[in-house]
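This part of the workshop introduces the protein records we will be handling. Each record describes a single protein and holds just a pair of labelled lines. Instead of coordinates, the fold is spelled out as a row of discrete tokens. To make this concrete, we reproduce a full record directly below:
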Amino acid sequence: MELKKNTKANVARNSSLYFAIGLALMLFLTNYAINYKTYDKAVIDIGMIDMEEELDEEIPLTEQLRTPPPPPPPPPAAPEVIEVVEDEVEIEETVIESTEVDQEEEIVEVEEIEVEAVEEDVEVPFSVIQNVPIFPGCEKGSNAVQRKCMSDKISKFVNRKFNTELASDLGLSGRQRINVIFKISKSGAITGVRARAPHPGLEKEATRVINLLPKMKPGKQRGKAVTVPYSLPIIFQVQD
């Protein structure tokens, strides 16, 4: 006769479950034992709080400002005195004479009125003028030749008359540039000289030299003399 084992009587069947439950229980007890704390019992006197004292609020005394009463309104203005004028007063009437011409009135002939033409001061740049101003000694040649001759003559004149030692006397050094603008009027005179330089002394010297230029033959545009603006840069090197 064979012996049959009862599956319900097998203790090892749920051993893993019992092990897990036991392990969780041990961890819980260990954690509780570690975190367990004890405190000394002491009597704490929290005292008594009187709420009535805190509820008493001091209200500051305020003084009511008494504003002065408004000033009384000004008295009404006196009515204007109206003068009564009698109807018998005669008023002078202004008589406007008629300007209409009667048929019997002679008509006076008016002489011709001469209108004088006012010449405008027209300015034409040196680069586009038809006939350039003529510097003394540049009368010969075409317009292009006269243009180049005038520029060369002005540059040589300025180089000869300009005091280059002035820059060193003023304490300047290096390369100096002066921009000069002037006009050659319809009469050929030099007018409207303006200069711009690093120092006022150089501007004054450049103005002095340009005003020494000789009188020229004025430039012409369409056969009429016009004013010609001219710009001239003056550049020199100051020797240290």
Q: What stands out?
A: Residues 15-35 form the longest helix (21 residues). The CA atoms of residues 19 and 25 lie 10 Å apart. The longest strand covers residues 174-184.
